[in-house]
Amino acid sequence: MNNNKLDLISTLGFFCPLLLFLTLLSNAASAETRVALVIGNANYKSSPLVNPANDAADMSAALRKHGFDVDSHINLDRKSMRQAIRNFGEKLKRSDVGLFYYAGHGIQIKGKNYLIPLSTDVSSADEVQDESIDANSILRKMESAGNDLNIVILDACRNNPFAQSFRSINHGLARMEGPVGSFIAYATAPGSVAADGRGRNGVYTQYLLQALNQPGLTIEQTFKSVRNKVKNATQGKQIPWESSSLTGEFVFNTDANESVIAAVKPPPVNTNKYLQVIANVPNAEILINDVYRGIINSKGVLNIENIQENQVEVLIKAEGYKTEKKQVALVPNQWKTINIILIPDIPPQLPSQPLNDRSTGSHECINKQRAILTTKVEFITNNGRWFVKRDMPELKIMMIQAFKKYGLDFIDIDLTGENLHKQDKQLNFIKRSNANYLIRFSSSVNESTIKAFKTNIKTISGDLSLELINIKDRNVIGFATQVFRKAGLDRKQILREALKQEISSLTKDIVSQVCDIPVAL
Question: What is the pTM of this model?
Answer without folding.
Answer: 0.47
